[in-house]
């Protein structure tokens, strides 16, 4: 009499249990990798916007762009960084651009426009209680929660 070839029920159950165990260990690692990637995107976006704000301020201080005499020299909005400011050194009135586009906050609601995803801090507002004003001195994430480093995204 010939024996049938195949797997027994016990072998099949053990194999499925091992695969399930491996999958349950991989899910948290995958979530951490995705979150770390989003945090790196957030840092990159903050650096881009802050560098553009600093470049605008330097151009204003150097007299390359038109700013109000009583103003701080910081941009009036994030949109100005994309739309550009008239270059006073150029006779034809070309513009100086500081950003190609406003970066998106990876933790924000994707339905919001990129400009609405950021909290704005005016020059005359304290760091502990940032508030918007007539200019944009700094930006911060409006996302709730904390990073893997334990610091709230709002404080990055």
Describe the structure concisely for a colleague.
Keywords: Methylation. The chain has 156 residues and is mainly alpha-helical.
Describe the structure in your own words.
It is a single chain. The protein is mostly helical. 38% of the residues lie in helices and 8% in strands. It has helices at residues 9-61, 78-83; strands at 85-86, 95-96, 118-121, 138-141. The strands form 2 sheets. The chain has a two-stranded antiparallel sheet with strand order 1-2. Strands 3-4 form a two-stranded antiparallel sheet. The relative contact order is 0.13.
Using brief descriptors, characterize the structure shown.
4 strands; 38% helix; 2 helices; mainly alpha; two-stranded antiparallel ribbon
β-strand percent reads 5-15%
**Shape from CA axes?**
elongated
Nearest-integer average pLDDT: 91
Number of strands: 4
| Spatial order of strands in the largest sheet | 1-2
Rg calculated over all Cα atoms: 26 Å
**Order of H and E elements:** HHEEEE
User: Which consecutive residue ranges, at least 5 long each, have pLDDT under 50?
Assistant: none
Percent of residues in helices comes to 25-40%
- SS-based structural class? mainly alpha
How far is the first residue's CA from the last residue's CA? 74 Å
Q: How do the helices and strands line up, and which of them pair or pack?
A:
Blueprint lengths: L8 H53 L16 H6 L1 E2 L8 E2 L21 E4 L16 E4 L15
């Amino acid at each position: 009499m010939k024996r049938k070839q195949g797997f027994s029920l016990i072998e099949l159950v053990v194999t499925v249990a091992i695969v399930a165990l491996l999958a349950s260990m991989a899910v948290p690692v995958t979530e951490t990798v995705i979150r770390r990637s989003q945090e790196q995107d957030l840092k990159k976006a903050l650096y881009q916007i802050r560098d553009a704000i600093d470049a605008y301020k330097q151009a204003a201080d150097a007299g390359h762009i038109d700013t109000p005499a009583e103003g701080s020299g910081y941009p009036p909005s994030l949109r100005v960084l994309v739309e550009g400011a008239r270059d006073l050194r150029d006779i034809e009135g070309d513009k100086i651009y500081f950003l190609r586009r406003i970066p998106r906050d990876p933790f924000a609601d994707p339905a919001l426009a990129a400009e609405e995803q950021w909290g704005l801090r005016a020059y005359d507002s304290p760091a502990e209680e940032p508030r918007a004003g007539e200019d944009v001195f700094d930006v911060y994430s409006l996302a709730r929660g904390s990073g893997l480093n334990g610091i709230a995204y709002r404080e990055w």
